[in-house]
Design brief:
The protein is mainly α. The chain has 2 domains: 140 residues; 100 residues. It has 12 helices and no strands. Helix 3 crosses helix 5, helix 3 packs parallel to helix 7 and helix 4 packs antiparallel against helix 5. The two termini are 29 Å apart.
Length: 246
């Protein structure tokens, strides 16, 4: 994708900021995967160049807040991270004296993507196309939850302390018992199906299975695998139904 010089400078700034993120699970590698996901799931969708550029720029900036706060909380950061990231983008847009529609639209996307203000702002300010862009951004981010490399990094962090182990267990429970893996776009559901299949193969591998069994118990790991298989079945069913209807 070809960006003008001003947007390139914002991407480079995001890369530099995320290279020293204080949250090891929301770092530059995570952001790079989200950008890749955004490109992949938005490719077959008809968007203007400004919309594509703003969507990709939003993916680069959506977790910048994790590089601002040196003690990112798993709870409150999840509530305000997109809003803080939007304000950080605005700061650097002004600093670099950037005036274009892409930066403005990206700021709006990040503000509408916030957990606290997002629903209200989306209802008031977002048109149908903007809501589609928001869904693509959210799906691209959520797709990374089951990324094997990221999950492996999480298991390494979990081994560092009992507190981290408890956080890891709670995170898995939340991911599997909320609607967080229910993709909002069909394009993302196609890929999340493949991601969960790969993840199930990974976690069922003897070495990985035994590690989780040792730390969380056989009952926990078996229930987790069963829940993932149920989720996969539901996603596959939805995908098959939609493919038949098109």
């Amino acid at each position: 994708m070809l960006f003008n010089k001003s947007i390139k400078s914002l991407i480079i700034e995001a890369q530099q900021q995320m290279s020293h993120s204080f949250d090891p699970l929301h770092d530059l590698r995570h952001v790079e995967r989200v950008v890749k996901n955004v490109k992949k799931i938005s490719a077959p969708i008809k968007l203007t160049q400004i919309e594509r550029d703003a969507l990709e720029l939003a993916a680069w900036w959506h977790d910048i807040s994790r590089a601002i706060n040196n003690k990112p909380s798993m709870i409150w950061m999840a509530m305000f991270d997109d809003n803080l990231s939007a304000l950080a983008l605005l700061f650097y847009t002004i600093k670099y004296r950037i005036k274009n529609k892409v930066a403005l639209k990206t700021f709006g996307l990040l503000m509408c993507n916030g957990m606290i203000t997002g629903k209200i702002m989306t209802k008031i300010f977002a048109n149908k196309k903007t809501r589609l862009l928001l869904n693509l951004l959210k799906d691209a981010d959520m797709m990374d939850l089951m990324n094997i490399n990221r999950f492996y990094e999480a298991t390494q962090l979990a081994q560092m302390s009992k507190k981290n182990l408890r956080k890891f267990r709670m995170l898995i429970w939340y991911n599997l018992n909320s609607n967080i893996l229910e993709m909002k776009t069909f394009e993302a559901r196609i890929y999340i199906e493949e991601i969960i299949i790969n993840f199930l193969e990974w976690i069922s591998n003897k070495e990985n299975y035994l590690w989780h069994e040792e730390n969380f118990g056989k009952d926990w790991i078996d229930k987790t695998i069963n829940k993932l298989q149920e989720t996969l079945g539901e996603i596959t069913k939805l995908n098959n139904l939609q493919q038949k209807s098109t």
